[in-house]
Every structure is written in C-alpha cells, then in structure tokens.
Design brief:
The protein is mainly alpha-helical. Helices cover 63% and strands 6% of the residues. Helix 2 packs across helix 5. The longest helix is centred in the C-terminal third of the chain and has 25 residues. The chain starts with 16 loop residues before the first helix and ends in a 7-residue tail after the last helix.
Length: 156
C-alpha cells in the first residue's frame, strides 16, 4: 500500500485565501467574543442586532444582503435571537417578505453590549493600528464585492 501523501505536492496551500481569511476571522471573533462575554451577546449576534437596529423594520433578505450572509445561516441566527426574545419576526407580508425588529429585550442587549464592543474594537485598533485597519477594511470590502460578482461554481 502506498502513502498517498508522499505523492501530493502541497506547495502553496498555506497561501490559500479561504484558509487565511477563516483563520484570521476566528482569531478576531475570539477577541471580540471574549471582551463582550459578560453582555451575553456574541460578536456575530451583535452584528445582526446592529443591522436590525439601523434598518428596522428590515426585510430578512435585505439584512442578509447587508451582512453578506446566506439565508440559511441568517435564519439559524435569527431563530436563536428570537428564542432569546431579542427580535420579532413578522408574519409573511403580501409580498411574501418577513420583517425584523428589535424587541425591548434586544434593545437592552444592544445597549449592554455596545460599550463592550467599543472596548474590544479599541483593543483591536491598538494592536493593528487605526490607519492600517481603515486601509485593510477598504481592501476587504473590495475583495468581498469582487467575490460576490465572481461565479465560482464548478464548471464555470
């Protein structure tokens, strides 16, 4: 029996965009989650709560586009927030859309977590540098938009 790995050329795999983005995302998420832990709101939930607060009432599809989340991921996250009574999800409207808004409990959770998020963000900026972060954020936005525009499905 031959060792398959002996015949694989793994050169360059450390440069994989997916690997590097996901690894960095997990580390940065862990920083924010650790600082925000006492609020009871994770950084991923915080992003959804902020999105709803800024746009409410907001259609689920609109929020998914703003946060660049697929509908199944957003739906799972929304169910948890609804179970925790932080959001209300409307019944389907005539246009078959469902709208989201924060409950009083959701507003309180956002109020409680915002100062902790700011502390986490300041800690992050102190580590990477505010100017560097702004440039990198713009670059990440460009990458995200170009990835959305690119059809990367097999056979294309």
């Amino acid at each position: 029996m031959t060792d398959i790995l002996a015949n694989l050329d793994l050169t360059g795999t450390g440069y994989c965009a997916s690997l590097n983005f996901r690894r960095t995302s997990r580390i940065v998420t862990r920083l924010y989650d650790t600082v925000m832990q006492e609020s009871g709101v994770r950084s991923t939930q915080f992003a959804i709560l902020v999105g709803i607060a800024k746009l409410q009432p907001v259609a689920m599809g609109t929020l998914a586009k703003v946060l660049m989340l697929d509908s199944s991921t957003l739906t799972r996250s929304l169910r948890l927030l609804q179970k925790e009574r932080m959001i209300e999800i409307s019944k389907r409207s005539q246009m078959r859309r469902r709208f989201l808004k924060l409950t009083h409990s959701g507003q309180k959770a956002l109020q409680r977590s915002l100062p902790l998020w700011r502390a986490a963000h300041e800690r992050f900026l102190a580590e990477v540098g505010a100017d560097y972060w702004l440039k990198l954020r713009d670059e990440l936005e460009t990458i995200a938009k170009s990835a959305i525009m690119t059809d990367l499905s097999p056979g294309k």
